[in-house]
Specification:
By secondary structure, the protein is mostly helical. The chain has helices at 20-26, 30-38, 53-59, 63-71, 87-94, 100-108. The protein has one domain: Serine Threonine Protein Phosphatase 5, Tetratricopeptide repeat (Alpha Horseshoe), CATH 1.25.40.20.
């Protein structure tokens, strides 16, 4: 009902400046996330730490939401403010084999890899 009546999808909430989409992703609510994206939610909004909905989906191994966000145009190269850690860095450093499907999705989406 709120979305049908043009509710603001990117209203900031709490100390972290989270949006409804960020919260839906954090809580693994795919249906809500899809509705918010369809209503125009910003898939690249960064909270105070610099994390995006995609970063949170990767960090929590919400593979279906990673797919949804990438399909909606989420930028896989956006990193955290302080460390610069991207969703791919997060997946590789935290997940091991459990995050392999997510890593494959990020690479298929065109994530740039710089090898030093």
């Amino acid at each position: 009902m709120l979305l049908r009546n043009k509710a603001i999808t990117d209203q900031l909430c709490g100390k972290n400046n989270a949006t409804a989409l960020y919260t839906a992703v954090h809580l693994n609510c795919e249906v809500i996330a899809r509705l918010l994206i369809r209503a125009g939610a910003n898939v690249n909004h960064r909270v105070k730490s610099g994390a995006t909905p995609l970063y949170i989906a990767v960090q929590n191994n919400h593979a279906k939401l990673v797919e949804v966000l990438l399909e909606a145009g989420a930028d896989e190269a956006i990193g955290l403010h302080r460390s610069g850690m991207t969703p791919l860095h997060c997946a590789c450093s935290e997940g091991g084999d459990a995050l392999l499907p997510v890593i494959k999705m990020l690479l298929a989406a065109g994530t740039f890899i710089a090898i030093k």
